[in-house]
Every structure is written in C-alpha cells, then in structure tokens.
Amino acid sequence: MTLNMNLGANSYDIILEHGAIQKASEYLNLNRKVFVITDDGVPAEYADIVCAQCKHPVKAVVAQGEDSKGFPTFEKLCRMMLENGFTRTDAVVAVGGGVVGDLAGFTAASFMRGIDFYNIPTTLLSEVDSSIGGKTAINLGGVKNIIGAFHQPKCVLIDPDVLKTLPKRQIANGLAESIKMATTFDAELFELIENKDIAENLDIIIERSLRIKKYVVEHDEKEKGLRKVLNFGHTIGHGIESYEGLHGLYHGECVALGMLPMCEGEIRERLLRVLEKAELPTKLDFDADRVFEAITHDKKLDGETLNVIYVPEIGKFEMKKTPLSDFRTVLEEVFCK
Ligand SMILES: NC(=O)c1ccc[n+]([C@@H]2O[C@H](COP(=O)([O-])OP(=O)(O)OC[C@H]3O[C@@H](n4cnc5c(N)ncnc54)[C@H](O)[C@@H]3O)[C@@H](O)[C@H]2O)c1
Does residue 138 sit in the same domain as residue 20? Predict the structure, then answer.
C-alpha cells in the first residue's frame, strides 16, 4: 500500500509493504552514491540488503543507543561523506529505529545544506511515528532533540517483516505511540487495540497510525498548532525520561506513563487497561516531587503554566494551559497512591 504525504513541493510516498526492503531500488533512486546509515543493534542483513541494491553504497554503522544522537557521531558521518566525495545529487538512507532516523535525517539535512533522504524504519516506534513527518535532530548537553531541522524524506519504506527480529519490549515501546494517536484521534483504533489481539492486528495498527500522523503533519508541517497533539503524554514523559538513567525506561514507556495524568475517570481506566494489555508500565516508583522537578525543566514550560494535551473523551483532545500547582496534584493522584 502507498500513502502519499501531501506537502506540496515536499510531498513523498510512504510505502507499507511486507518484503519492501528486498526491492528498495524499485521505490528509491539508489542509482547514485548512497550513504547507508545503520546501528550495531539492527541486524546487519537489513542494511546489507539495501547496500546490495545501490550503485555506489557507502555504509556507516554507529553504536546503538541514544548517545549516538550527538555531535561526535554527526561529525564522523559528515566527515565520511566528505571523504567519499558525496555531492548534492547523492542520497542518505537510514536503516534503523528512531535514533538512526533522526541522526541520518539531520546529517542529510545539513550536508551541503540538504541532500535527498530516504528512511527505512526498523522498529515499531519508527514505523508508526518517527520515520514520517520530517523532524530530524540530535541531542546536546543532555537536552533531547535540541539541535535539528525539518527535512522531509523523499520516500519512506516500511517493511513490517523487519519487526520479526525486534525484542518484545521494543514492540510495546512502539505501541505506546500508536496508543497515543488512537487516544487523541481515533476511537476505533483505540477499541481495536482494546478488544482484539494486538500481534494479529499489527499491520492495521501501523497503517492507521500512519494515516493519523500523515493527517496531522499535512495540516501542520512545522508544529505551529495541531501537530502539538503528537506531544500527548510527552510533557510528563520527557520529565520521566530525564531520570532514564535511574529507571532504564524507553521513550515509549515514559510516554505511556505520561499519558495517564492527562485524562480522568473512565477514560483513564480504559487507557490504563490498554497500556497494561500492551505490556507498558503504568506505575512509577519514585516520588512526585522528583517527577515534578524534572517536568518543570522541560522545554515546553511557559511561566507558571504548562501547555498540555488533555483527552476529555477517547478519540478527542484539547489543548489546555494548566497551572503548575494542578500538575503537582494530578501527579500525586496518579503515581503516589
Ligand atoms: N523524529 C521524530 O518525529 C521522532 C518521534 C518519536 C521519537 N523520535 C526519536 O526516536 C528515538 C527512539 O527510537 P526507537 O524507539 O526506534 O529506538 P532505537 O532507534 O534506539 O532502537 C531501539 C533498539 O532496537 C534496535 N533495533 C532496531 N531495529 C531492530 C530490528 N528490526 N531488530 C532488532 N533490533 C532492532 C536498535 O539497535 C536499538 O538498540 C529517540 O531518539 C526519539 O527522540 C523521533
């Protein structure tokens, strides 16, 4: 199936197809110098399958993990491109999860002020969310995604077959982003995740998540308004994530926890059950003061209030300016019972 991200001159196809990676050259222009970037946790065969279809492949394997999303690795990649004589008409291909996608995308956005970028996501999180939309970034000084650019890919190739090698916990991590989109935008998708077997319906979950993200990006490419909905669960999630070293939680797991305080009553109960079904965490074992402190360091802080996405009904959302004191109370209520 092909979806088209309609962004005028920046439009591109999103191919969702089992086995697509085997015929990448049918969809991507690999008949040139191609910089294939992957990490050492992604099974090597995926990048090798892509390299085998390129006229002049140059492969870079970075260390897996968030630490690669920083200036040292970015510089190494730029130097490799320079040494290998890359020009403005060449291309970069990401073969990996959100880390590789963000890093490779930013490299493509920066080299010679921007060259063609293709994304071949290999985690569920990147297949349902981060590979489309054009946000690319690296981290600096412990602040996530603080250096970046909007640089839309020329094509995104989503092959659900590559998820066969992905650990179960990483599948749950990606599901958190689909649950986020269902909770704010698509009551039917929420009910599907709630009532049906998740593994058997993964293709549908990927497709519907992509359709939601596509709609949001098409209506607000540069995050001036609507696209902020994708931050549902992220304000508290990022706060929790800053203690990641302590708890070893993944991004999606932090988002899962971060969504719970942003709804109430029966909505929160249903979300809690869905997160548990997806094997995502719903409890936090450190005190609200520390979470609160971490959240108030978040970059979305605006004076004495926080702008957050709140869900009044499954499939609907509203943007709310919330006083910090209310935030403190709700954190107590959700996590410190
Ligand atoms: N650009 C965006 O719009 C956007 C949106 C959400 C998240 N992100 C970013 O995405 C990143 C998280 O991405 P992620 O969750 O994909 O993590 P990740 O890229 O670190 O991948 C998780 C792990 O899975 C391994 N892996 C990848 N594919 C595999 C496969 N098919 N089989 C086995 N192992 C595999 C990787 O080596 C890594 O160890 C964060 O840096 C976050 O900031 C970006």
Answer: yes
